[in-house]
């Protein structure tokens, strides 16, 4: 009797779950008509989400349809609207508006995350972001339309709400990006607003002097220890009462798991993630695995949990796909582990900073780190070639993102 492994999501975790499940099926000599691997997503493409702070975001996708065909993964276009874990079904809303129900024997929830937008007056109407593909494209088009406005401080000012990893990459890219649109002589002003007392609070003290020096070199201002109180057509008002005139306010603070995780009968963490065991099974929900930004997973035995990043999502996806397929094939599962942790923060024209370890100790900075960042962004995080042997070989859980 045919069994079905269903994967929801075609981000980094979903893509690697499909690759890894297909790899194990191939290694066990099981034909696809005995174990069907199906993936549901709105489009058969990988959005290169870590690069959406860059110009020309419409170019930052990679097709997956030929990869899926090469490894015998069934692609289903649409969005999963509902999941019923009691009868192991998912309802799909197709691109044509038609609804269908699909059964599964094992489910991998790889639905990713979304930017958290608090109920701040004017944020939904006047705020931009680079979280999702369409949002990054909307920001890029807005920036180009600024050239049609008369020169003014308001036109030339960008405020970035959030001084974490994404906020810094957005902010440090902005001076060069805006001058390419408005002219090299344009008086560009970029301001980072961060509620914490420092920028990049999650990265610790070692890389901070490099980051702060880069912000100074690029002329980027900071407002620390304050938050955003309101947005309007003229700009943004901060929690201390300061009003900054700006035509472009970019929200880059806080992430939450995509809301579909709430349909799985498990106790979510504060970020909306599903709690999983070391094999990435959702606690107390038979037949369901979670991975990537949808899962709260331990990376090691000393207290580190996976972060909402493609670095963790790719490896987690490979383990989740492998283990879900392993259960159906009756072979041993493999516990997820990811002891290595690195960051590579883009600092725009000021270079980059590369750290290693959970304490974020600096290993490279400046142009050397920038070359590594460019290699990560243009090679490492892209899908494998649509060649069966190459694609399957790329998904060994023990080797994915082995840094």
From TrEMBL:
* Annotated Gene3D superfamilies: 3.50.50.100
Pfam families given for it? Answer: Pyr_redox_2 (PF07992)
Single Gene Ontology MF annotation: NAD(P)H dehydrogenase (quinone) activity
Q: Its Gene Ontology biological processes?
A: aerobic electron transport chain
Look up the domain of life of the source. Answer: Bacteria
Q: Cofactor(s) for this protein?
A: FAD
List residues traversing the bilayer: none
- The chain positions of domain FAD/NAD(P)-binding read 4-317
Has the keyword Membrane been applied to this entry?
A: no
Which keywords has UniProt assigned to this entry?
Answer: FAD, Flavoprotein, Oxidoreductase
Its family remark reads:
Belongs to the NADH dehydrogenase family.
Question: What's this protein's name?
Answer: FAD-dependent pyridine nucleotide-disulphide oxidoreductase
């Amino acid at each position: 009797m045919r069994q079905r492994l269903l994967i929801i999501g075609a981000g980094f975790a979903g893509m690697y779950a499909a690759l890894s499940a297909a790899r194990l099926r191939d290694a066990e000599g099981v034909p696809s008509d005995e174990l069907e691997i199906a993936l549901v997503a709105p489009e058969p493409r990988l959005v290169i989400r870590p690069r959406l702070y860059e110009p020309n975001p419409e170019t930052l996708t990679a097709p997956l349809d030929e990869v899926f065909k090469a490894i015998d993964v069934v692609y289903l276009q649409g969005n999963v609207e509902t999941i019923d874990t009691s009868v192991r079904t998912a309802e799909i809303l197709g691109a044509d508006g038609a609804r269908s129900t699909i059964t599964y024997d094992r489910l991998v929830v790889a639905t990713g995350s979304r930017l958290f937008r608090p109920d701040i007056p004017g944020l939904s109407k006047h705020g931009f972001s680079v979280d999702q593909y369409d949002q990054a494209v909307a920001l890029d088009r807005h920036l180009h339309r600024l050239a049609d406005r008369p020169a003014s401080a308001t036109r030339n000012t960008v405020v970035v709400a959030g001084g974490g990893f994404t906020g810094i990459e957005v902010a440090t890219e902005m001076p060069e990006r805006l001058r390419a649109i408005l002219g090299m002589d344009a008086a560009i002003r970029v301001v980072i607003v961060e509620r914490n007392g420092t920028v990049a609070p999650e990265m610790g003290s070692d890389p901070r002097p490099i980051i702060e020096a880069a912000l100074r070199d690029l002329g980027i201002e900071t407002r620390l220890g304050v938050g955003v109180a309101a947005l309007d057509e003229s700009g943004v008002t901060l929690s201390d009462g300061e009003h900054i005139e700006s035509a472009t306010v970019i929200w880059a603070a806080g992430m939450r798991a995509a809301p579909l995780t709430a349909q799985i009968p498990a106790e979510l963490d504060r970020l909306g993630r599903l709690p999983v065991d070391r094999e990435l099974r959702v606690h107390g929900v038979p037949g369901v695995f979670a991975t990537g930004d949808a899962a709260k997973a331990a990376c090691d035995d000393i207290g580190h949990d996976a972060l909402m990043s493609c670095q963790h999502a790719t490896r987690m996806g490979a383990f989740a796909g492998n283990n879900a397929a392993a259960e159906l094939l009756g072979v041993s599962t493999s516990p997820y582990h990811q002891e290595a942790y690195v960051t590579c923060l883009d600092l725009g024209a000021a270079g980059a900073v590369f750290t290693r370890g959970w304490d974020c100790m600096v290993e490279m900075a400046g142009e050397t780190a920038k070359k590594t960042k460019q290699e990560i962004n243009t090679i490492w995080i892209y899908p494998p070639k649509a060649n069966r042997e190459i694609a399957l070989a790329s998904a060994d859980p023990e080797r994915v993102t082995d840094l």
